[in-house]
Amino acid sequence: MTIKKNLYLLAALNVVVFIVITVLFFTHSADTRDRILKLINKDQALLLLFNDMYANGLQTEQATRNMILNTADDKARSNYKKAVEIFAEAYKEAMTLSSGQMKKTLTEIKPLWDDNEHIRQECITLSALKNLAAATECIVTKETPKWREVRQKLLDLIAEQRNKFSKITDDTEVFMSSTRKNLLTIMFLSLLITSGFMYYTGRSINRPLQSIMKTLKGSESNLTVKIPIDGSNEIYELAGIINTNIDNLHHIISALSTAVKNVSTSANEIYEAVEKQAAITTEQTASISEITSTMEELSASSTQIAEHSQSVAEIAAHTLTDSQAGADVTEKTSKNMEEISTDNRRGLNEVLELGKKSKDITRVMEIINTIADNTKLIAFNAALEASGAGEAGKRFGVVAVEIRRLADNVMDSTADIESKITEIQDSVNRLVVASEKSSRAIAEGLSTSTETTGTLAEILEGAHAASDAAREISLSTMQQRTAVEQVVIALREIEEGAKLSAGAINHVHGIAKNLSALSGNLQDIVKKFVLKV
Fold first, then answer.
1. Which residues are CB-contacts of 487 (< 8 A; sequence separation ≥ 6)?
2. Which of 4, 183, 349, 414 has most Cβ atoms within 10 angstroms of its Cβ?
3. What is each CA distance from 88 to 78, 109, 471, in whole angstroms?
4. pTM for this one?
């Protein structure tokens, strides 16, 4: 049997084993997937639903107690409503997924939950009626026992579902373990059979290879050796091909030996010519590099001058702008000072007028005091007449006393007013003095502002001239920088071309050197081959 047939048989065996393992794997995967889907979609879902029912039942209990303690607790009312809705949804989904005794237990929970809901509403109603004691008794004696029945059934369902969940998990683990054992057994048998075939095939390959190695060992450069052929498999066919290639290589090496001698002579001549050209190119590249460096320094200096001149132009422009702004502000300040002077004079006149009016008020207060004195005298006379009239004059006497008291109050008030008017007149006098000082200061400020305006006008003219000069300098330096940069760019291109030329010549120099060395190596290699017996 040939090596090819052995390999085909080994490949067919591996394909069969692969198909068996694949079928077992997919069968195991499908069954495992079904178990996991059932575990997730039904058993785990039921466990989560029971937990939701239990948790939201506890939430309704807590929310009920919060609403009883505080009927205005909107958050507790919202939590209660949400918990009841979630409990109903979980119950509905659990009834869909459950079966058997579990479904029967769920059916028993529904009326208990509904009764408990009615009791909770009753307790909440009692609390809303401000009957906290009755609401508390309702919770303790009615609602809590009913909830305990519901809770116990939910806990039993949860425990039952957990046990079922655990059992399914254990069964799945046993199934997976059994499948792993079957796969390992099949793989072990496949490994034994494959090892046997590999041993047989290796032996059929190794025998002719040993014969070939024994023949070729120690004769790596001998092109006259021949490999003996005493079989009919692919290795012996390869040995015949090697013998043919050795004959062909013998002819090629003979021709190559003559060509290498000619190449070696030419390579030495090229190497000497390129070495001279490389030295000249290196000197030219160094000179161009020095010129380029000098022009780059000049370009850098031109750039700095241009940047500084640009900065000077910008500063001059800013100075011109600031001077113009200062002149505008000073002119505005002069106008404001004139307005302040006018307002100050107007205020001083009003203060003087206020002083005059305060004196008029003083004369009015003197008239009021005179009237009050006369009123007191009249009241005194009225009191005398009332006392002489006996019982008939008592009421008139009371009126006379009140009029006298009113006159006293008026005199007291006018005394206070006179005191305040005196203080106002003192303040007016001080204000007049201060206003006169302010008027003098404002006049001085107005004069200074006028002088400043003139000075800023002169500065503004100088700033105009400086800005124009800086702009012209900046334009000239920018033109100079542009010209220098163009020269630097041209020199860099020349330098780059020189470097590329030098690199190319150096590359050719290296190639010529390698070619010379390679031709020498080829001569040494060709000499190693045995071309004659």
1. 295, 299
2. 414
3. 16, 12, 86
4. 0.33
> Is 182 buried (19+), middle (13-18) or exposed (0-12) by CB count in 10 A?
middle
Which residue segments constitute the domains of the chain, with CATH numbers given?
3-209 (1.20.120.1730), 301-508 (1.10.287.950)
Confidence (pLDDT) at 512: 64
User: Looking at residue 393, what DSSP letter applies?
Assistant: G
Question: Of 161, 180, 57, which Cα lies nearest the Cα of 114?
Answer: 57
Question: Amino acid identity of 313?
Answer: A
What does the block give as tokens for 327?
């002149």
Q: Are 488 and 288 spatial neighbours (Cβ–Cβ below 8 Å)? A: no
| Six token digits for residue 161 | 């579902």
CA dist 416 and 271 (Å) reads 127
For 261, residues 6+ apart whose C-beta sits below 8 A from its C-beta are 523
What is the DSSP secondary-structure string of 114-183?
HHHHHHHHHHHHHHHTT-HHHHHHHIIIIIHHHHHHHHHHHHHHHHHHHHHHHHHHHHHHHHHHHHHHHH
Instruction: Report the pLDDT averaged over residues 448-475.
Output: 68
Q: Are 533 and 224 in contact (CB under 8 A)?
A: yes
pLDDT digits (tens, 9 = 90+) for 372-406: 677 777 767 777 777 777 776 666 677 777 777 77
Is 232 in a helix, a strand, or coil? Answer: coil
Give per-residue pLDDT as tens, 195-228. Answer: 776 777 777 677 777 767 777 676 666 667 677 7
